[in-house]
Amino acid sequence: MSDPAVASASSPLLEAIRGRRVERWFSDERLAEADVMAIAEAAARAPSGSGFRPNIFVAVTERDQIRNLFAMSPGMFSHPAAMLAICIDWTVLPYLRPDDPSTTHPTWFDIGAAFENALLVADEAGIGACPVTSFHRAGAGAILGLPETTVPYVLVTLGHSAQPQEYRMPKRLRRGRIHRDRYQEASDG
Ligand SMILES: Cc1cc2nc3c(=O)[nH]c(=O)nc-3n(C[C@H](O)[C@H](O)[C@H](O)COP(=O)(O)O)c2cc1C
User: Fold this and answer.
1) What is the pTM of this model?
2) Rounded Cα–Cα distance for residues 88 and 141 (Å)
3) What is the CB < 6 Å shell around ligand 1?
4) How far is the CA of 188 from the centre of ligand 1 (A)?
5) Domain contains 117
6) For 129-168, how does the pLDDT look when each residue is reduced to its tens digit (9 = 90+)?
7) Which three-class secondary structure state does DSSP give residue 187?
8) Separation CA 80–CA 155 (nearest Å)
9) Is residue 50, in this structure, part of any structural domain at all?
10) 161 lies in a domain?
11) CB count, 10 Å around CB of 71?
12) Residue among 17, 22, 78, 86 to mutate when testing ligand 1 (max atoms within 8 A of CB)
């Protein structure tokens, strides 16, 4: 039986999705301003629940800002050349209580859609990227100069890889995650 996790359709975008991996080790090389802003635009054009678009994006390339944000981020392993902070402006969603999981779940999907767009456009430009959620939100918000009602939830790190490309292992997709028409328990056969 063919594996539904490996589609036969030919699609350059699907090929890019198959090949994308996070990068955590960055070289000192600067990034072109146009690339950073293209990544930010891709993130800002992601779909948004009810079209509210509550996300604010801050593209960071100043070395001091990068150093200060890095110091707030245990989930970051090396200094990136740039970062894209993805935030929620909670004033756009006045009927929600910030961080209340029973009402705010669509906003988390907005953030995920935004950073996946960013990762893919970075990958296409040969730029390594990683979404980082392990950082001190209030500290990062202060460094970025955000108003109190705008909270950063993801820092997408960006930069050229410091590793030889052979370290970039292809991603395997575990079988049994994609089903057709209805869920089927895995059989041994
Ligand atoms: C919501 C989310 C949060 C993440 N937070 C971090 C993080 O704080 N630090 C980090 O190094 N990687 C982080 N990652 C990257 C994941 O570890 C990575 O995507 C995963 O290991 C799969 O690797 P791949 O993207 O190369 O397929 C995060 C990914 C997601 C989707």
Assistant:
1) 0.93
2) 11
3) 21-22, 24, 75, 130-134, 171
4) 31
5) yes
6) 999 999 999 999 999 999 999 999 999 999 999 988 777 7
7) coil
8) 11
9) yes
10) no
11) 14
12) 22
Q: Are 78 and 162 in contact (CB under 8 A)?
A: yes
Reduced to 3 states, what is the DSSP secondary structure of residue 57? strand
Q: Which two tokens stand for residue 151?
A: 């909270």
Residue with tokens 């079209």: 51
Q: How far is the CA of 16 from the centre of ligand 1 (A)?
A: 17
Nearest CA to ligand 1 atom 29: 131
Longest dimension (CA), the chain: 58
Strand intervals (E) in the chain: 55-60, 82-89, 128-132, 150-159
Report angle CA 42, 43, 49 to the nearest 5 degrees: 120
CA of 187 to the centre of ligand 1 (A): 31
Cα–Cα distance between 129 and 108 in angstroms, integer?
19
104 C-alpha to center of ligand 1: Å?
22
Q: How far apart are CA 150 and CA 43, in angstroms?
A: 17
pLDDT in tens, 77-126: 999 999 999 999 999 988 887 777 777 777 899 999 999 999 999 999 99
* Closest of 149, 157, 103 to residue 129, by C-alpha: 157
Cα(88) to centroid(ligand 1), Å: 20
Residue 101 inside a domain? The answer is yes
Tokens of 105: 């779940």
Query: Domain span at residue 93?
Result: 45-156
Residue nearest to atom 7 of ligand 1 (CA): 132
